[in-house]
Amino acid sequence: MYDFLTGPMLWVTFLVSFGGLLVRAVMYVRGLNWQLDRVAYRPNMKYGLRGGIISILAFIIPFRARLWRVRPGFTLIFFAFHIGLLVTPILLEAHNVMLKEAFGISLPTLPTGVADVLAWTCLVGGLFMVLRRIAFPEVRIITTFYDYLLIAITVAPFITGLIARYEMGDYNFWLMAHIITGEIWLLSLPFTKLSHAILFFMSRMQLGMDYGIKRGGMKGSDMAW
Amino acid sequence: MPEGQFCNKTPITTDEQLKATLNDKGGKQYYEEMNHLDVDSEKLWGAIQKTMKSRIKTWLEICAHCGLCAESCFLYQVNGRVPEQVPSYKIQATLGQIVKKKGKVDNEFMQMCMETAWSKCTCCNRCGMYCPHGIDMGIMFGYLRGLLYSQGFVPWELKIGSGMHRVYRAQMDVTMEDWVETCEWMAEETEEEWPGLEIPVDKVGADIMYTCNAREPKHYPEDIAEAAILFHVAGENWTVPSEGWEQTSLSMFAGDWECCKDNVQNVYDAIERLKPKRATGTECGHAHRATVIEGPYWTGRPDGQPPVPFLHYVEWLAEALRTGKLKIDPSKRIKEPVTLQDSCNYVRNQGLKDITREIISYIVEPGYFVEMAPTKEHNYCCGGGGGFNGIGKYREQRNMALRKKMDQILDTGCKLVIAPCHNCWDAIRDLEEEYEIGIRWSFLKPLVIKMLDVPEHLLPKDE
């Protein structure tokens, strides 16, 4: 079972997940239409790229966009959650051991303490995301079951991973659960709203190009995001 | 599918229809007929499949339901922060549902969509700046308005408005003859005080072609006279076209995209005919957006630019002041606290934020200019944008919307507001009428004329 999940199944997962995200990115660009979107992408590519990059940077750097500055509490939780979510699995020692076994290469790894803190941050961040969905009327009204499900899918590998890491209960069971939930998460990426992993960049880039080309960029004024 | 005499899926294209619809006071029969209007689900879904591509599809799909757009919306703020005013909710509950149900929605649902699209969103695009995913709900509401218009679910005034544009190619029943006569009349009137002043119609090869808002010839022709005075004093070689002089687009507010294209093409045809070096329009925001920012796309210009460089009035004015074509007498500068309304349609939508402040630096004594908070591209809609000002059915909601601008103005402590946009100007006038906070408001033209340092040779001889 372990061999299957970390062997063929993992390959399929990676293929579907990363391939799927790539397909979504390509489909996004192909579905852009200068006349319907009312943005002259091609003839003004330079302005567009400039606006797009400014727009992406404003939102991936904490406190850069005005939005992040007017909502500092949310911003902290949001970034902690996403950093934990992305950095932990990539730089975790255990994962890199597998990488080394398979390809003979490995990335720098996080000290165990740091990895623990990041994993817990992600969990606590996820919890806050759930709580604010319940607590704030402006978030509650747009929240659906699907939103909770996605948070569950996202944090499940962290919960199972931490249980396995602290060796609570049956280690083998929790390890399997961790691998399966991790694979479910990866497989969900291209097919659900989690596709924002790639589509965030596409959408941000597009709006940035819109502003960079027609909504001020060509008049020499960058949008103060 | 029962369609009414006035409320139906067919645009107004004749003067007769137009007058008949206008005579239905307040749209009484129109809205009654709307209650029986069928939804053509197949056509609706067909339109969505044809026109909803990456951008809007992705926006609907990846909205994380985080609610961060709530506070960005002034309508959410002034309406007691009710969750029904959260931008994400507004669009998901309307366009989102139409897409989800593949167009199979009923009359009641479409009427709810109409109310949401025209009374809960002014398409100010502010939410787009505050969404981490870059989702611009103003754009989506514009799209939704198009779908609603094609199904006949559009407020009475905007059905008439786009009809006006279709019949008269102007937002009001100003014909080409009316327009040319108004120009002649204004030139005659103004020439007494400004010898040599002309309003040249259809002059080929001028440096600047000037277009305006049909409200000016219809209701305040002095605005045309003021434009003429400033061009005259600046020594501009300018002209107005007899046809293609109107640059507003109520059809853009209505979602009548076919009509939008026709209007802007009319202006571009005038440019092609008169071959000016540049063009400029009046102090209007949505007109500029229609003619200069969105218009090139409606007419299919792949570079996204009008046929010649087309300036907003503030750009021309700043240039004239900067280059000394117009000189300000420093003793006549504004010496009272004054604030500036940044129009969504050329500030957030075309970045013209610094140029207006440059004008301020010439006409306001240093120390007297007070910024609104927030300001520039973060400024709020005047409260009456996107057609909101003109819709009687939603007057109450519009009056509520004005409160945000009222608070912003009160916070500056200024009694004078400069509003270089027709729509903002109207909204601020209405807010004074409604709430009586004791403010005055002005376009730039009359202010600048009062403080001009006029060269001797342009003054009347016998004085």
What does this structure look like?
The complex is a heterodimer of chains A (225) and B (463). Chain A has 225 residues and is mainly α. Chain A has a single domain, classed as Fumarate Reductase Cytochrome B subunit. Helices cover 76% and strands 0% of the residues of chain A. Chain A has 12 helices and no strands. The mean pLDDT of chain A is 94. In chain B, helix 16 links the parallel strand 3 (278-281) and strand 4 (310-311). The model of chain B has no long low-confidence stretch (mean pLDDT 96). Chain B has helices spanning 15-23, 28-34, 41-51, 54-62, 74-78, 87-100, 107-119, 127-130, 137-150, 156-168, 176-191, 215-218, 222-234, 250-254, 257-274, 285-298, 313-322, 344-348, 354-363, 395-412, 422-435, 444-450; strands spanning 208-211, 238-239, 278-281, 310-311, 338-340, 416-418, 440-442. Chain B is globular, with a radius of gyration of 22 Å. In chain B, strands 2-1-3-4 form a 4-stranded parallel beta sheet. Chain B has a 3-stranded parallel beta sheet with strand order 5-6-7. Chain B is mainly alpha-helical. The chains are: A mainly alpha (225), B mainly alpha (463).
What's the structural blueprint in terms of helices and strands?
The complex is a heterodimer of chains A (225) and B (463).
Chain A: H1 2-6, H2 8-30, H3 34-37, H4 45-60, H5 66-70, H6 72-91, H7 93-103, H8 112-135, H9 137-140, H10 145-165, H11 171-191, H12 196-213
Chain B: H1 15-23, H2 28-34, H3 41-51, H4 54-62, H5 74-78, H6 87-100, H7 107-119, H8 127-130, H9 137-150, H10 156-168, H11 176-191, E1 208-211, H12 215-218, H13 222-234, E2 238-239, H14 250-254, H15 257-274, E3 278-281, H16 285-298, E4 310-311, H17 313-322, E5 338-340, H18 344-348, H19 354-363, H20 395-412, E6 416-418, H21 422-435, E7 440-442, H22 444-450
Parallel strand pairs in B: 1-2, 1-3, 3-4, 5-6, 6-7
Helix pairs in contact in B: 1-10, 6-7, 6-9, 7-9, 11-13, 13-22, 15-16, 17-19, 20-21
